[in-house]
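We modelled the chain as a single entity of 338 amino acids. Its sequence is:
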Amino acid sequence: MRSPTVALRRLTLILLAGAIALVGAPLAPAHAAGNGEWAVTPTPPKKPSPAPRQYFFLDARPGTTITDSVRIQNLTKESKTFEVYGADAYNTERDGGFGLRTKIQTHIGIGIWTKLPVEVVTVPPRRQADVPFTITVPPNATPGDHVGGIVVLEAEPKGQVERDGVNVAIQRAVAARVYLTVAGPVVPGLAVSELEAHRPTPLLPTVGDGTIDYRIENTGNTHIAPKITITSSGLFGHEVRQTTPLPQLDLIPGASVQMTGKLAGIWPVDLVKVTVEAEGSEGISASRTDRELVVAWPVLLLLLLIAAATAWWIQRRRRARRPVPRGMRNNKQLVEAR
């Protein structure tokens, strides 16, 4: 039977885990439209265009303030309460996913420039609420794109996961992205800074799979959704297939993301050539090529043994067919007779 101290300690851990989840747990992936229970979109104008806004695309000069409004739709049959705030965007280091920072993380752009009249909003069932906000651009703001979002976070955690033996509450969020362009020189830039193709050393002479690791960087001051193209081939130009779906990236300025892909059709002894190209809609592009020598050492050893045995057999045949002068043959017979 557990002692009261142990039980109290476990209860404290659970309560602390819940408190941490309320203020510091990572957000669930944010979506531009909704998650089936609530949706977040830009408030439509009084005279809506045929194509409704899915994101905020805004322009401003340094030192100015712009005003807009976000619409929160409650799609359920019960009232819902949300926390609302502005947040900076980021790309995950691995795979380049688009994310928005939590409320307690450090913000340097949209997250601190955005002000809302309320922090908590309650929306009745099957109703919607339009929440105005302002974005004040500092006088020293750098030109180019600043990316973030208006985040609508459920006020109470729903669901739990276990981490390190304790239950941690999860809060879900939905967001509308904000793309704010600050007036000034615009310099788009892309780079494929790393590329490596490799296949684990095969033990058997079979066609196998490999992987490629590459890094895409947004080196300019505009957000870029690059089109990624990967081409690959093997020894003598034989087909090596890229089997991973090509990524759909939305890179904020300064983003550097590591990507991974899979290759199929690599021979046990092969020279694999891979080229990764990233092309932006602004007419910029970047590419990088890598060549990887693949060797199945058991196969190579077998080939060397076969080559050595063949050379020895050819040499022996040549010696057997070599003509012997008649005098040498008679001398050999005399020696044998003695």
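As a brief sanity check on the tokenised model: The chain is about 20% helix and 40% strand. Helices lie at 4-24, 110-113, 297-321, 326-337.
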